[in-house]
Specification:
The structure is a single chain. The protein is of the alpha/beta class. The chain has 2 domains: 148 residues, Aspartate Aminotransferase, domain 1; 266 residues, 3-Layer(aba) Sandwich (Aspartate Aminotransferase, domain 2). Helix content is 37%, strand content 17%. The protein has 14 helices and 16 strands. The strands form 4 sheets. Strands 4-12-11-10-7-5-6 form a 7-stranded mixed β-sheet, with helices on both faces. Helix 12 packs parallel to helix 14. The chain is globular.
Length: 426
């Protein structure tokens, strides 16, 4: 154990961790490319991109240089009454990349807060238009949208992460994803029945992340969007996990937009926005949503403003990350990762204790059955030289887009070895 870890752990409270029984976390001292170096000199290939953020790998020199330059000029300034170039440029670039007229960008510091802002926008949009009764949000089974109180109320209640707070959260409406004719009729009926009190539907386009890496097609997403239009309900796309190339397009909602031309009314971004370097999130609204807040009445304004909103360092990192999507073949790299994941994870399907294997873009998920020793699996992955962190009933890979085929094979090979060992003891 490193000399700083033991005294430091006496004061740290770690996320999603039972501190009484959990094994000591691994001490990381440096990173480069797709590798994390531990205090004892071991290297781990990162198979999950630090919670899906490090799309360009670690320590990319272009992002480093942009942050260093910004640090020497303007690290941060409040965003109320003041504005700065990195944020203005980033907002313009995001508006140019997103489909349709998603053109007004509100910056925050985390994905949960970006969703909170989206919910506030949706409810106040209807209030400003004289429909104060539209106060409920429809969300989907297996969904996950954050850990704050409003977002916990939009997470699958059976997943267990937030079950403890069930009686303390706002009462929202859960639906099944309408991925067949029966479910589509049911979803349409739900909006027809409750539309007068529903402000918005929120969805993770194509892949539901922390709720189990469940996947659906663009036709399902397009149906949800069309149903929202029919019943005068806003659509919020939570692209915090799927945004910036992870599903094979720059934004997952582009697949539905290509089918029908539909665009979410509000879209949330975070995680890979800065290439995994600094905290930053964005809630982006379409023109008609923004215009509902324009009034001579001060009370019609959006009353939200995080202290570190539009942090200049983070905006500089995000602009540099967008540069890399323009200059380097990220989407082609995702396509290659997808093809390799499909081939190399498929043998897991035949193992005892495996319910399904799912791949979309640079996401490969193996759904498990039975009792699962998550801590034991995580330790075994580390022993094999990879950082993979299964959760719930899913072991998954979401590597940096810059990973080469050899390192990716190390990850998929470790997945098969660990799950084969589990199957042998079942």
């Amino acid at each position: 154990m490193s000399d700083w870890q033991n005294p430091g752990l006496a004061h740290l409270w770690l996320p999603y961790t039972q501190m009484k029984t959990a094994a000591a976390p691994l001490p990381v001292v440096s990173s480069a490319g797709v590798r994390l170096t531990l205090a004892d000199g071991r290297e781990l290939i990162d198979g999950i991109s630090s919670w899906w953020t490090a799309c360009h790998g670690y320590n990319h020199p272009h992002i480093q240089a942009a942050v260093e330059t910004q640090l020497a000029t303007l690290p941060h300034v409040m965003f109320a009454g003041l504005v700065h170039e990195p944020a203005a440029r980033l907002a313009q670039r995001l508006a140019g990349l997103l489909p349709g007229d998603l053109e007004r960008v509100f910056f925050t510091e985390s994905g949960s807060v970006a969703v909170e802002v989206a919910l506030k926008m949706a409810l106040q949009y209807w209030r400003n238009l004289g429909h104060a009764g539209k106060q409920r949000i429809v969300y989907f089974r297996h969904g996950y949208h954050g850990d704050t109180f409003a977002t916990m109320a939009l997470c699958d209640p059976e997943e267990g992460m937030h079950r403890l707070f069930a009686g303390s959260m706002p009462d929202q409406i859960m639906a099944e994803l309408p991925n067949d004719d029966i479910m589509r009729r049911a979803f349409d009926l739900l909006l027809e029945t409750h539309g007068e009190r529903v402000a918005a539907v929120i969805v993770e386009p194509l892949v539901q992340g922390a709720g189990g890496m469940q996947m659906h097609d663009a036709e399902t997403l397009a149906f949800v969007a069309a149903a929202c239009r029919r019943h005068r309900v806003l659509l919020i796309a939570d692209e915090i996990m799927t945004g910036f190339g992870r599903t094979g397009r720059l934004f997952a909602c582009e697949e539905a937009a290509q089918l029908t031309g539909t665009t979410p009314d509000i879209l949330c971004l975070s995680k890979a926005l800065t290439g995994g370097t600094l905290p930053l999130a964005a809630t982006v609204a379409r023109r008609h949503v923004f215009e509902a807040f324009l009034s001579d009445d001060p009370a019609a304004a959006l009353m939200h403003g995080p202290t570190y909103m539009a942090n200049a360092l983070a905006c500089a990192a995000a602009n540099a990350s967008l540069d890399l999507f323009e200059r380097e073949p990220r989407l082609a790299q995702v396509a290659a990762i997808e093809a390799q994941l499909r081939t190399e994870l498929e043998p897991c399907r035949r193992l005892t204790g495996v319910a399904d294997v799912r791949v979309k873009g640079a996401i490969g998920a193996v759904e498990l059955t039975g009792e699962i020793d998550l801590d034991g699996m995580r330790r075994r992955f580390a022993e094999l030289g990879v950082w993979v962190r299964p959760f719930g009933k899913v072991a998954y890979l979401m590597p940096p887009f810059v990973i080469d085929s050899a390192d990716l094979s190390v990850l998929t090979g470790a997945m098969h070895r660990v799950l084969s060992a589990r199957a042998a003891t079942a």
